[in-house]
Amino acid sequence: MMLEAIGVSHNFDYDLFSDINLQLNKKESIAILGVSGSGKSTLMHILSSFMKPNSGKININGESIYDLPSKKLEDLRRYNLGMIFQQHYLFRGFTGMENILSASLMAEQSIDNQLLEKLGIDQVINQSAADLSGGQQQRVSVARVLVKKPQIIFADEPTGNLDKDTAKSVMDVLYSYVKEEDRGMFLVTHDEKIASSCDKIYLLENKILKEL
Ligand SMILES: Nc1ncnc2c1ncn2[C@@H]1O[C@H](COP(=O)(O)OP(=O)(O)OP(=O)(O)O)[C@@H](O)[C@H]1O
Ligand SMILES: [Mg+2]
Predict the structure, then answer these.
(1) What is the mean pLDDT of residues 105-126?
(2) What does the pLDDT look like over 74-113, one tens digit per residue?
(3) Which candidate among 13, 48, 138, 160 keeps its CA 20 to 30 Å from the CA of 169?
């Protein structure tokens, strides 16, 4: 098992969700559905080491991540975890390629040029990130995460800005990475068709995460 959430609850001014339990295994993709505001992004931040929940535990490779010393947690983020945020953060003054290069250097990995072709961004990669279309920026964000070759990918609506065909090709790249390289993925999406390609589908509703 790669990741396990045990009894995870979180509240801001009010209870967001409680007693979430789930497990992610190798080669597995898990989709998380739920209406806007139900807490999907918050759950992704908790699972991916960016936010400690009010109670409960996240174990990755058998270790409770929020109990790790900060250097070990940093290394886990740097080498093992890949987060595709809902609001993609690119360095706007840099080109697409420079953005991707910085991610690969940080994780000490090389860039596979075929990946850029598969994502359909090889022709635009030398433009400044600020000049790329929303969907191109989104695909650069996907590339930034994939070049790290992370063990677990957390993708928060990675195809939200994309047309149907481009979305499908980006998802195919993500799914085949997970299957062929023995990795795992959590995917937040509003698209039930995309979710149906995952191995498990969960719905976050009325503060509860339930498997569909
Ligand atoms: N840091 C925070 N402090 C206070 N409230 C927050 C914080 N982050 C999120 N929330 C609140 O928690 C709720 C869930 O937010 P979240 O972003 O997790 O929803 P979501 O399911 O991802 O929605 P969407 O589909 O619109 O992206 C919202 O009501 C939001 O205002
Ligand atoms: Mg969200």
Answers:
(1) 94
(2) 999 999 999 998 887 899 999 999 999 999 999 999 998 8
(3) 48
Task: Find out whether the beta carbon of 34 lies less than 6 Å from any atom of ligand 1.
Answer: yes
Share of residues in the chain with pLDDT > 70 (%):
100
Is residue 16 within 6 Å of ligand 1 at its C-beta? yes
Residue nearest (by alpha carbon) to ligand 1 atom 28: 37
pTM above the 0.85 mark?
A: yes
| Bridge partners of residue 208, in order along the sequence | 205
What average pLDDT does the chain have?
95
Domains of the chain, with CATH numbers?
3-87+150-211 (3.40.50.300)
* Cα(109)–Cα(93) distance, integer angstroms: 23
Distance 64 CA to ligand 1 centre (A): 24
Instruction: Summarize the confidence of residues 42-53 as an average pLDDT.
Output: 97
Buried b (16+ CB within 10 A) or exposed e, 116-144: bebbbbbebbebebeebeebbbbbbbbbb
**Ligand 2 centroid to residue 189 C-alpha, Å:** 9
32 lines ligand 1 (CB under 6 A): no
**Which atom of ligand 1 is closest in space to residue 86's alpha carbon?**
27
Atom 9 of ligand 1: nearest residue by CA position: 42
